[in-house]
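Protein modeling request. Please complete all fields; requests missing the sequence field cannot be processed.
Requester role: graduate student
Desired output: 3D structure, token encoding
Chains: 1
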Amino acid sequence: MNEDIQLKIISLIDDGATIENSPKLKMLIEVSEDARKFYESLLLSESMLKRFIGGDKAEQQDKKIDAFIQKQLEEPKNSQRFNFKPIAGFAVAASLAIVALTFVDIPLNISSEEISISEDSLYPDELIIVEQSKPLIISGAEMKTLWSTATEIAVELGVDRYEIMYVVYEGNKDSFVDNNIHKPRQDEDYYVDLSLIENLDKSFIVNEVKRHMLCYC
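Delivered output (217 residues):
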């Protein structure tokens, strides 16, 4: 099916169009059987996302980071759709050495200043254990389109579809043919790094993704 038709269908649905209220959308869907199946797959993805998220968007934004962290701590499930491969494990905690202080007799002619010991030297430095997050990776062989893949991952992580599309594309531009957001390479792996959007406004993320979709870049 023509990519222009796919893009137009996606844009209309994203703007709230249905076959009941949009003659333009209905006409696009009736162009071919492939267009109809594509439309039905998008409706299924939308339905899954709405059932999972529910509630207010504001509450979703408040909880998205907690949901992401919790996802990383859970054991992998056999039924999980995507094979997320951990790149970096948790940091290994170093063991504290036990310092044995042996006191011996000190000659009386040695002054107290000479035998004074710094209080700080009696205690080992505080051990700081840094826990590293485990980045997620999507196999290109499992990605048919970024739109459908991002929708499924958004359901699993409890975040917005456009956020997933943004981090996958911006973090892996070289893995798209000619930097075209519609053409992910199937022989590449794609990092899902949500830290890329920590300080970005939601409207900026959505507009950037739509811009890339329209310009095929």
